Amino acid sequence: MTQRNGISGTSDRILHSEASKVFQQANGMDHEKIQEADDCELEERGQEGGRRVSVAVTGAVEAPDGGWGWMVLVATILVLALTLAFPSCVGIFYTDLQNEFHATNSETSWVPSIMTSALHAGGPFCSMLVEKLGCRATIMLGGVLSGLGMAASSFTQSITELYITAGVITGLGFCFSFQPAVTILGHYFVRRRVFANAMSSTGTALGLCALPVLGNYLHTEYGWRGSFLILGAVLLNCCVCGAVMRPLQPKRHRGQPLMNHGPPPPDENSESKKKGRARTIWSSMLAFLSKHMAFNQFCNNLRYRVYSIGITWTMLGFVVPLVYLVPYATANDMEPSQAAYLLSILGIVNIVVRPPFGIVFNMPWFKGRHVYVFSAALLVNGLSNSICCIGPSFHVLLAYVVIYGLSMSVVGSLMFTVLMDVVEMSCFPSALGLLAVMESVTLLIGPPLAGILVDRTGHYFHVFFACSAVVASSAVFLMVSFCWLDKKERKALNQVKPPTAPDPAAPTIDIVPGCQYSSVSTEGDKDKASANGAEYITSV
In this protein, which residues make up the domain named Major facilitator superfamily (MFS) profile (predicted)? Predict the structure, then answer.
């Protein structure tokens, strides 16, 4: 009898399965689409067994928060050291480039400006490469491109050629290495994400510490051309770092992106038959922008909009002091070696301070308060630029780089963490791409505007005054805006209050959908709430 019941139960399950398949086919859905929808739903929930689930390639994979992730973290640190910190070291060769090509301050400043701008503006192209090649191959491609760009720069004969080789080619190589490294690190770490981001940001500090010393030594021994050639070989180490960053889950389909949960691409042939060619191109362009640049997030997510505008304004004056610090010091009779050591001291301060900051900011008390700590540090960073106006002596500039380095450590530790708090992880690559493109505009025009200011006034300290005003104003904007948003959302929550006592006549199981209640939430509850589309309200 038991065996017969088992056979009967199995038959019922088979019949139920066949009926479900027939019903799915009748509605125009096949089994693979149902599985993709389930995978996407699992990723959106972001939970499995009380822990956040990260999606790699096409399926849901639990973030290891350790293991091989520590190797990925070390590789990310080295990538950031070789990419983000590199444009600041061009200031060591600033005077030589001016004398070699008979260029003004404004013309010479376009070299690090174009390099930094291309590093950020290449975000959409980088997203396409990640979709086709994956993070590992894209990082290695960026290492090859940046190495070849710097090597070719050593053979340039005009400042315009230097714009293309050191600016565009090397900058795009930095972009292809930097952005995929940050993205894949966010998939390896979820529970320890704040600490991992803070540790990875020490890569920029490591580069600021080591690259000026290396650049000054190479400049003394081999000149600027030999230095660029050797630095090009150093940048090839990004290929080694990229080889370490293996995906969390093997690809099931060639060419699948790291995170692909959108609808399947439309049939271009049938689309072109129904609509005109121009309309098809327009729809494809909109689909590309929606996929690789988070315009929908910018339009619908007010927090992301405020944050991206504030960061874009910040970058107009955030990196300019690093470009003009060495020329400012050498123009006031400071030895070039001493001026280069200022950047190294700045890097040492970042290396020492960022890991403890990462541990502190990972504490539960800072949950939801990252943006305010970030804004306060940005305000201190902006005001610290005015210290340079006191005088060009070594002791004054030493005090400046220490204060600037402390505030820069907090800003660098929390910049990507705040972005991950503002948008969901599934939208992070496209959100980072749009933010990078917006940053590239101000990063491009910042140093040349400062160069024009120096050419017209003949003094460098005006540049530091202007940078102080720009960065401080952006910090105040972020702080006031997020405070207003939090008050507005708390007010909206207070207007919807649960009843003090349940109505005894009403059944207790009838709950109005969408009503809000007050409870002591856990980490798992927060992740579930954010993944189900509910907006998690931070508090000051």
Answer: 71-491
415: domain range? Answer: 293-495
Decide: 430 and 297 in contact? Cβ < 8 Å.
Answer: yes
Taking phi over 0 as left and psi of -120 to 50 as alpha, with beta for the rest, 28 belongs to left
Q: Is residue 375 part of a domain?
A: yes
**Rounded distance, CA 292 to CA 437, Å?**
11
Full-model pTM:
0.61
Partnered with residue 61 across adjacent β-strands are: 54
- Counting the structural domains of the chain, the total is 2
Instruction: Please answer whether residues 201 and 112 qualify as being in contact, where contact means their C-beta atoms are separated by less than 8 angstroms.
Output: no
Specify if 31 maps to a domain. Answer: no
Counting as low any pLDDT under 70, the low residues of the chain are 1-63, 249-278, 285-286, 288-294, 496-540
CA distance 239 to 246: 13
Do 349 and 404 sit in the same domain of this protein? yes
Report the pLDDT value the prediction gives residue 68, as an integer from 0 to 100.
84
With residues binned 3-state (H G I as helix, E B as strand, rest as coil), the percentages for the chain, rounded to 5, are 75, 5, 20
Alpha carbons 181 and 490: distance in angstroms, whole number: 36
The whole-number pLDDT of residue 17 equals: 46
Question: Measured between alpha carbons, how far is 403 from 387 in angstroms, rounded to an integer?
Answer: 9
Per-residue confidence (pLDDT) for residue 176, from 0 to 100: 92
Question: Backbone phi, then psi, for 472, in 5-degree steps?
Answer: -65, -40
- Angstrom CA distances, 515 to 196, 493, 496, 501, 527, stand at 36, 10, 8, 15, 19
The angle formed by the CA atoms of residues 333, 110 and 105, to the nearest 5 degrees, is 35
Would you state the pLDDT for residue 61? 62
